[in-house]
Amino acid sequence: MSYAKRENNMPKVDKEKCIGCGLCTTICPEVFELGADGKSEVKKTAKGDEPCIDEAMESCPSEAISK
Fold first, then answer.
1. Percent of the chain having pLDDT more than 90?
2. Sequence-separated (6 or more) residues with CB below 8 Å from residue 3
3. SS3 per-residue string spanning 40-52
């Protein structure tokens, strides 16, 4: 059950909107990384309960991060 809850809280990155600035990786490196395409993605090891996720979402200049 806790796994399902964590899945629901996982952020999503819209690759169409992402400009690859890396701000989210600076704010929340536990969750975000830049992929081979130079755009942000959620790490496979990320958990959905890190408090920095909301700050990364709010700080994203292209509004590419959502929950």
1. 81
2. none
3. EEECCCCCCCCCH
Buried b (16+ CB within 10 A) or exposed e, 35-50: eeeebbbbeeebeeeb
Separation of first and last alpha carbons in the chain: 19
Q: Which residue has the higher pLDDT, 19 or 5?
A: 19
- Per residue in 41-60, pLDDT tens? 999 999 888 999 999 999 99
| Cα–Cα separations (whole angstroms), residue 64 to 28, 36, 37, 45, 61 | 15, 17, 15, 20, 8
